[in-house]
Amino acid sequence: MGLKYEERYATHPADAKSYDTNRLRDEYLVQNIMEEGNVNLTYSQYDRLIVGGAVPVKETLKLESIDPLKAEYFLERRELGIVNVGGKGSVSVDGEVYELDYKEALYVGKGKKEILFSSENAEAPAHFYMNSAPAHEVFPTVKIGREDAIIIELGEPENSNRRTLNKLIVSDTIKTNQLQMGMTELHPGSVWNTMPAHTHSRRMEAYFYFEVPKGQAICHFMGEPKETRHLWMGNEEAVFSPTWSIHSAAGTSNYTFIWGMGGENLDYGDMDICQPDELR
């Protein structure tokens, strides 16, 4: 029990066209993110974003550096976003403790040396979902509660995509170097997210799906708009989306997902839209 990590390489869209199901899953799908007693990290060559999870039970878990970083400590050259998708917990940042309830977020700036994760109740442990990106400036550590989020209502029930978008760690709420994170909640009866689909060559993205009911699944769509592919996903699983790929999904039930981005700019509206009837 402790720290686990793996690495993922970037792929060319021309290569991805030839991938079978297993290869697609190996390249883009991230599973086993939430394991009790562990910190699990996946280091991607897409803008060097790290996706991870920490599930402390009885013992506190520490976020330590991993070999690919070649760093003395994890945030030596990085910033970190955390969203709690489990029971009540806390994150200690160089001795300062931040309590995070369900769906509350925390931004931790570059240079913080000791990050510790704890759960209030071992019977209902916290599930801390994390995104981390390279950083060059130091910004303050900030907690973003549900009341602090920028909330946008999107979609229509007749199109099965009624959803509530919560901007958590974005340039409109706090200062970051390149990291952006938010949460989109599908309303009952709606299943489509991020439709119309889009790409943004300035930024990569990662999606983390949760609140997927037992026995249900998510069909995540990726690939170039004229050459799409799909991945079937379960609860508390994530997917890397390259800059050239769309990122959209439909579920067999409503669900919630956390989106995280890293890249060249912080403009949330920077999207190259592709209408549904243009997809192939």
Layout of SSEs?
Elements: E1 3-8, H1 13-16, H2 21-28, E2 29-30, E3 39-44, E4 50-54, E5 61-62, E6 78-84, E7 89-93, E8 96-100, E9 105-108, E10 115-119, E11 128-134, E12 142-144, E13 150-154, E14 163-169, E15 180-186, E16 192-193, E17 197-199, E18 203-210, E19 218-224, E20 227-233, E21 237-241, E22 248-251, E23 256-263, E24 272-274
Parallel strand pairs: 1-3
Antiparallel strand pairs: 2-21, 3-4, 4-11, 5-10, 6-9, 6-11, 7-8, 7-10, 9-12, 13-14, 14-15, 15-23, 16-22, 17-24, 18-21, 18-23, 19-20, 19-22
Descriptive notes:
The structure is a single chain. The chain has helices at about 15, 20-30, and strands at about 5-10, 30, 40-45, 50-55, 60, 80-85, 90-95, 95-100, 105-110, 115-120, 130-135, 140-145, 150-155, 165-170, 180-185, 190-195, 195-200, 205-210, 220-225, 225-235, 235-240, 250, 255-265, 270-275. The chain has one domain (about 5-280): Sandwich (Jelly Rolls), CATH 2.60.120. The radius of gyration is 18 Å and the shape is globular. It contains two helices and 24 strands. It is mainly beta and about 280 residues long.
